[in-house]
Specification:
- With 631 residues, this protein is α/β, with parallel strands linked by helices.
- 27% of the residues lie in helices and 26% in strands.
- The strands form six sheets. Strands 14, 15, 16, 23, 24, 25, 26, 27 and 28 form a nine-stranded mixed β-sheet that branches.
- β25 and β26 form a beta hairpin.
């Protein structure tokens, strides 16, 4: 994936002009009226979404976001009972400053525009999901090439806004490759509207199964095109799918249980409740889970490439900074300063800044440090309470999961209840619950932090260790990262020698002693980590059957058509968040909820296998290894 560059605006009369294409983003006469006439009325809104529980609109050029803002406003004002997902792609995203200038022309959407800018992602390639109106309206932005972005998307689209600049100005936007993806993603009966009447656009859509009509254009423009997908048999391009073993499984209707009340389970409950599902969360009263650390720091992991995994790290970080349930949980002092551990690390930080090339409101260099204004520290108690507000909670240890005809039975300390679907999100305890079927490899990683009385602080520090900003008069100094083969009650008890290690790291990097008289206590817990440091999100599976079925991969990793994987219908996994739970949990829960509810996936297709729970077993088969928590 190539680097994404922010774009600025110039102006022609009252219309903003793209510096990259020399064309206007919207009509100088009245851009909002043009959007309503060409696109919303063109596809039949608002009547078209009235009887839908979930309506999906996709667009080929986000620009200033005016089409999205007008659609959001129309959707809210129509009193629609369902939910809206608006998907769009943008190769040259505008800066927040440029967006604000473009939005000033339209006070009618000022409220919506301000919310959009507050959630605006950095110029990072990949997928960026954002939620508005409590999850009733959702925006999935794809930064990068339009045809390549839509080729990575798994979705079923109800209506298309074919926008972008004029074909003569931006021919790549109006390519056969993009028309192929539009046809592939369209539901039967999906409608489209566009401002252009170009013959090659009309012919390209007709050839791919659309019924196309010319209708009156907006303003001085004589004609434009509208149409409907009539013949899916003419669609010849298939989805670029994940491996056959990395299939996903939808959830049946009915009540759902989540086992685990940490950040994974709480985020899962929030994502499913936003989709109208009946959710019960089982929260163990035993040892503290890693999510109960006194404070969490949102400091991203950056990679110096544009591969899908690098996209995952930056997208998860940006998603967490805009996550609505964190609003009241942020420390008052925002921002993180990343200090280099040594001279080599200083070079790495400089390379990261150059590689990302984000705007100053996301990243800036200061001497040898990187400053991340959108990062910061989270009050974990407040965050979890916000996520679980209104959710049915059961304070009991789950002892067993049993499959039955209509779902799964959850047995918890003397009582049992039946559910249509169960999500295991119990951190390191997931291994015990999934043991009868085969849990993907999990490693217990012990972490200790020191709790300190707060001093005056401008924000959080990351330096190999970390120091959170002040929250309720306290700061947290951390952390150790000790991989364990087994664990017991003693591993949840703080150790004096670990305090010394934490203090030594601070002194070594920061060049000064941390005041010991500020330390008021210690906290220790266990993280669930994976061998490749990516979380597990997806269906549970029968490991013994899968090992037998996919054994031929040990002879030839390129063998295909080995059959559908032995998934455990009605059972899913979300765990392995490691030390980044408050960054990964919200986005991964939304992804898993979308897959369970049959919605557009907020992760690209080439990341599905990377987070699939079966990946460790497949990797072990290919390498000729036995599968264990240490694989």
């Amino acid at each position: 994936m190539k680097k994404i560059e922010h774009s600025e605006l110039t102006w022609r009369d009252n219309a903003p002009v793209s510096a990259n294409f020399g064309d206007v983003y919207y009509s100088a006469e009245n851009g909002l009226a043009e959007t309503n006439y060409v696109f919303l009325h063109g596809v039949g809104a608002p009547d078209i979404w009235r009887d839908h529980d979930h309506f999906v609109i996709a667009e080929t050029g986000f620009g200033t976001g005016l089409n999205f803002l007008a659609t959001w406003k129309a959707f809210r004002e129509s009193g629609a009972r369902g939910r809206l997902t608006f998907i769009s792609v943008e190769g040259y995203p505008l800066t927040e400053r440029a967006l604000e200038a473009a939005h000033e022309t339209f006070p009618e959407v000022a409220e919506y525009a301000a919310a959009l800018r507050a959630a605006w992602p950095p110029a990072a390639p990949g997928f960026h999901k954002r939620h508005f109106d409590g999850g009733k309206v959702n925006l999935l932005l794809m930064f990068g090439d339009a045809a390549k972005g839509y080729a990575r998307l798994n979705a079923e689209v109800d209506a298309w806004f074919l926008d972008g600049f004029a074909p003569a100005k931006n021919p790549e936007m109006w390519s056969d490759a993009l028309f192929d993806q539009i046809a592939r993603l369209s539901k039967p009966g999906a409608r489209f509207a566009t401002f252009t009447a170009a013959g090659f656009v009309r012919r390209g859509l007709i050839a791919r199964g659309f019924d196309v009509s010319k209708v009156k254009g907006y303003g001085t423009k004589r004609e434009r095109l509208v149409g409907e997908m009539k013949d899916k048999s003419l669609v010849t391009v298939q989805q670029t799918v994940w491996p056959e073993w990395a299939q996903l499984s939808p959830a049946a209707d009915g009540p759902m249980a989540i086992i685990g009340g940490g950040i994974a389970g709480a985020s899962m409950a929030y994502a499913l409740e936003a989709r109208g599902r009946d959710v019960t969360v089982y929260r163990s009263p035993g040892h503290p889970c890693a999510s109960q650390v006194p404070a969490a720091i949102l400091a991203p992991r950056f990679l110096l490439d544009h591969q899908p995994v690098a996209e995952f790290f930056t997208s998860a970080y940006a998603y967490s900074t805009a996550f609505a349930p964190y609003t009241q949980a942020w420390a008052e002092a925002h921002g993180i300063t990343m200090h280099p551990k040594n001279a080599k690390d200083a070079d790495r930080l400089k390379a990261i800044a150059k590689h990302l090339d984000w705007s100053d409101d996301w990243l800036r260099e200061a001497d040898d440090t990187l400053v991340l204004p959108r990062g910061g520290s989270i009050d974990t108690t407040t965050a979890l309470e916000s996520l679980l507000d209104g959710v049915t909670l059961v304070g009991a240890n789950v002892t067993a999961l049993t499959k039955h005809a209509d779902g799964w039975r959850v047995q918890a300390e003397g009582e049992s209840r039946d559910f249509a679907h169960v999500i295991v999100a119990a951190g390191i305890e997931s291994d015990r619950l999934l043991a009868p079927f085969g849990c993907p490899p999990l490693r217990p990683n012990r972490g200790q932090v020191e709790i300190c009385s707060a001093s005056l602080s401008d924000g959080s520090l990351a330096y190999g260790g970390y120091l959170t900003a002040a929250i309720s008069g306290q700061q947290t100094l951390g952390s150790t990262f000790d991989r364990l083969d087994t664990y017991g009650a003693d591993d949840f008890q703080p150790r004096p020698e670990d305090r010394e290690r934490i203090l030594a790291t601070y002194t070594s990097v920061m060049g000064q002693e941390f005041p010991r008289d500020r330390i008021t206590g210690s906290w220790a817990g266990l993280r669930a980590t994976t061998p490749d440091h990516l979380p597990y999100a997806g269906p549970a599976f029968d490991a013994a059957l899968a090992r037998t079925q996919y054994a031929p991969l040990g002879r030839d990793a390129n063998i295909r058509e080995l059959g559908e994987p032995p998934l455990l219908a009605g059972l899913s996994i979300l765990t392995g968040l490691g030390s980044k739970g408050y960054q990964y949990g919200p986005m991964m829960a939304d992804y898993l909820a979308a897959s369970l509810c049959g919605e557009p996936l907020p992760l690209p297709n080439d990341l599905v296998a990377a987070v699939h729970p079966m990946r460790g077993l497949i990797r072990a088969i290919i390498r000729g290894q036995s599968l264990s928590s240490n694989s």
